[in-house]
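[recover] target loaded
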C-alpha cells in the first residue's frame, strides 16, 4: 500500500538522512507492529558542486605530485567500501551502520548502555510535514511485539476434581536490553461467575508452591510459568521455587493478583524468532467443598515492556 506524506513542503523534502516509520495497529488488544526504513535525499545542486570540486582538486593534484593522486584515490576507494547500508539474513537484521572510532554495548542486571564516539551534529528536529533524526543513536528504534492467543477453555468439573489448561505468549524484540513480561487478573478473585467465585491459589510461603495443593474443604484457581525466559520466582532447584535455575514442568504454582506480576524477562534481544512463555492454568474443588454450579470466567492481562 502506498502511503503519502500530507502537505509535503514545496519543492520536496530538504537534503539529508531520513527515517520513515510505520506503526500498524492490528485492530485488537492495542497490538502495534512497526517497520522502519532509512533513506538519504541528496540535492542535485549539492551533488553537482561536490563533483565539480573533486574534479578541480584532481586537476590541481595532477599538476603537482603523483603521491597525492594515489592517496586521493585510496581515500575515495575505501570511503566507497565503507558506506553504511542495511544488511539482513535468515538469522538477523541490521537496520543501520555507523563509522566511528569507539563506543559499544555494555549491560548489567539493572541497565543496558549503548555508546558511540566520533559523531557530530546529531539530534532530532521536527516540523508539521516531517521528522528528522540525525546520527547513529538517534536512528536506533527498538521494536517489540507480542502474540495474541485464543481464549482458554478448561474442562468442566462435574464433581470434586481438577481441571487444567495452558496458554502461551511469544515476545519478539530487538531491544539490546531485552524485555519484561507480566500478568495480572481483572478481578479478585480472578475466577468468577456473577456473585460466585473460586478463591485465588494461595502459596504456603512468600514464593510459589513447588507442588499444587488444595485442601479438601477449599477450592482454588492458580497458575505457573514455563519457558526459556521464565522469571526467577518460578524457577526451582527440584524441591523449592524461587531458587535454582530449573524450570520443571507443572511445578511452582502461584495465585493471581490484580497488580502486575513478572512471569518472564530477558536482558538481551531475541529477534527474529522470539521466545514463548507458557502459563499453565489449574483449578480444583476439594472433596468437601460445596461450589456453586456455574460457568466461571477469568480475565487475564499480559503485558510486554522493553527494559
Amino acid at each position: 500500500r502506498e502511503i503519502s506524506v500530507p502537505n509535503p513542503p514545496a519543492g520536496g523534502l530538504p537534503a539529508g538522512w531520513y527515517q520513515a516509520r510505520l506503526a500498524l495497529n492490528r485492530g485488537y488488544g492495542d497490538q502495534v507492529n512497526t517497520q522502519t526504513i532509512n533513506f538519504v535525499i541528496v540535492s542535485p545542486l549539492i551533488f553537482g558542486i561536490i563533483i565539480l570540486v573533486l574534479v578541480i582538486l584532481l586537476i590541481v593534484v595532477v599538476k603537482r605530485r603523483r603521491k597525492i593522486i594515489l592517496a586521493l584515490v585510496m581515500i575515495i576507494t575505501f570511503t566507497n567500501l565503507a558506506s553504511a547500508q542495511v544488511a539482513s539474513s535468515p538469522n538477523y537484521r541490521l537496520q543501520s551502520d555507523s563509522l566511528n572510532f569507539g563506543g559499544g554495548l555494555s549491560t548489567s542486571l539493572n541497565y543496558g548502555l549503548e555508546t558511540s564516539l566520533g559523531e557530530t551534529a546529531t539530534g532530532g528536529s521536527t516540523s508539521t510535514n516531517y521528522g528528522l533524526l540525525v546520527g547513529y543513536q538517534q536512528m536506533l528504534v527498538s521494536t517489540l511485539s507480542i502474540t495474541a492467543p485464543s481464549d482458554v477453555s478448561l474442562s468442566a468439573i462435574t464433581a470434586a476434581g481438577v481441571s487444567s489448561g495452558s496458554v502461551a505468549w511469544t515476545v519478539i524484540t530487538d531491544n539490546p536490553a531485552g524485555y519484561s513480561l507480566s500478568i495480572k487478573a481483572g478481578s479478585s478473585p480472578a475466577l468468577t461467575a456473577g456473585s460466585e467465585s473460586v478463591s485465588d491459589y494461595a502459596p504456603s510461603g512468600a514464593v510459589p508452591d513447588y507442588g499444587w495443593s488444595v485442601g479438601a474443604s477449599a477450592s482454588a484457581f492458580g497458575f505457573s510459568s514455563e519457558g526459556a525466559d521464565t522469571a526467577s520466582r518460578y524457577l526451582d532447584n527440584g524441591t523449592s521455587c524461587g531458587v535454582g535455575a530449573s524450570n520443571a514442568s507443572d511445578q511452582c504454582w502461584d495465585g493471581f493478583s490484580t497488580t502486575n506480576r513478572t512471569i518472564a524477562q530477558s536482558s538481551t534481544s531475541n529477534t527474529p524468532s522470539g521466545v514463548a512463555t507458557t502459563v499453565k492454568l489449574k483449578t480444583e474443588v476439594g472433596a468437601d467443598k460445596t461450589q456453586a454450579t456455574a460457568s466461571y470466567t477469568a480475565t487475564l492481562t499480559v503485558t510486554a515492556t522493553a527494559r
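[recover] notes: The CA atoms of residues 112 and 177 lie 5 Å apart.
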